[in-house]
Amino acid sequence: MTLPTSSLESSAPGHRAWVVGADIDTDALAPGAYMKFGIDEIARHCLHRVRPEFASTVRPGDVLVAGPNFGIGSSREQAAAALVHLGVRAVIAPSFNGLYFRNAFNVGLLLLTCADAPGIAEGETLRLAPREGVIERADGSRLTCESVPGFLLDMVDAGGLLNLLKQRSSTSHATPNGVTSC
Predict the structure, then answer these.
(1) CA dihedral 169, 174, 179, 180 (to 10 degrees)
(2) pLDDT level of residue 2 (50, 70, 90 thresholds)
(3) Which residues contact 60 (CB under 8 A, 6 or more apart)?
(4) 111: nearest Cα among 158, 145, 74, 162
(5) What is the structure's pLDDT at 100?
């Protein structure tokens, strides 16, 4: 299910926050011992060493809130894919590792860079407006985050870069000489 990324998600009741600390590395998200398995098995162990209950109790639409340096470590794409597989709507943190940032959007995971993320409480209900750079709390107060460019939101809405390219390919038109144009 794709959720809207423009304006506050007014039709959504909100997203439950799961809070973790700073410096969450890719091995915590996709443990190396499980990399020989598929994403189902990797996701079952996502954040196990930090929040043992996370993978079995997170619900589709929940958000992960972290401290700075989220996604440090290796370049494994499965670290972002595990969160997508579990239905996580977004990760909110003050900063992200560059490779993780790229991998997350490539697999359709929304990342919101928010300096005030550490002030979000466990279990808090949030509404997101990534295009506008706003996170709304249940009490009506708002946190400012960096707005997410439209081309990245297009990737999230499509479920990742490959899905976006497939969608664009299916709407392109072939010319008489066989060359595809968009």
Answers:
(1) -20
(2) very low
(3) 1, 86, 87, 89
(4) 145
(5) 97
